[in-house]
Amino acid sequence: MKAPFYVAIAMAIGLIVLLGYFLHLDILVNLRIVLLEWAVILSAVALLVGTANLFYVHWRKFTTAQPNGFYSAVLIISFVITLVVVGWFGPTHAYSMWIFNNIQVPIEGSLMALLTVLLAFAGVRLFRRKPNLISILFIGTAILILFATGPLFGINLPGLSELRAWIAQVPAVAGARGILLGVALGTIATGLRVLMGADRPYGG
What we know:
Blueprint lengths: L1 H21 L3 H38 L5 H21 L4 H36 L3 H17 L10 H10 L1 H25 L9
Helix pairs in contact: 1-2, 2-3, 4-5, 5-6, 6-7
């Protein structure tokens, strides 16, 4: 009896929220607002549970002397210090901003630099394995963006920065919008499948 009950609850809640956007009835609008507020609260609770689980997993890994336990200790210490500082002084305090600007931002910059190297390596492998027009365009665009972004031994080639700006504002934005449209269509399709009971991620 659990499966039909869960399916009915999921379908009813989904239909109420969906109809609340299209039918301007007070009862539907109020129910939609309440259900969305509950969803936000549940998302926050899920975030807290996930954070606690992350802390517990790395604590157990550190206390049981598993491989790479040192990195788990670094994560736990960083997590506790950041939580205490931000929780006590607030997210906009000078101490909190120091942690963000001197730890978080350099780590993000390092990850972006690593991503750049990996993309260049993937482009070279793609060109060697399947040399066609797409791979040539990929390699050429990557090299152009790298040269236009970083200093080229003090040399300023005319038109290079303008070409980079055009690539970033026209083809790159078009590709990003296509990805966002694909994500939106996939989300809508998944939501419709949940509403129709075809997908049951809630365990029904």
